[in-house]
Amino acid sequence: MALPDEATAQRVSQQLGAEGFATDTHPMKEGTGPGVSLHARKSMRLSIEEIGALSKRFTALAQQLGGHYDGWIVRRGN
After folding, report:
1. Which residues, other chains included, contact 30 with Cβ-Cβ below 8 Å and sequence gap of 6+?
2. pLDDT tens digits for 32-73?
3. Residue 16, H or E segment
């Protein structure tokens, strides 16, 4: 998700970390706007219902904090 600043990204990172997500943050790439990109990872079974619920939650969270949520990337496990 894209968030307005590092302090906001760190608050979200701590919250998601408490829920078992590993996170990392990076400054937004030049030309994509100000702010910080936060990536969250968690190994889990693919469940359409759970992915949908998390997507709605992350969208609302990002919007409340002045940012936006841009979706999921699925990686195949070993």
Report:
1. none
2. 766 999 999 988 888 889 989 999 999 999 999 999 998 877
3. helix 6-18
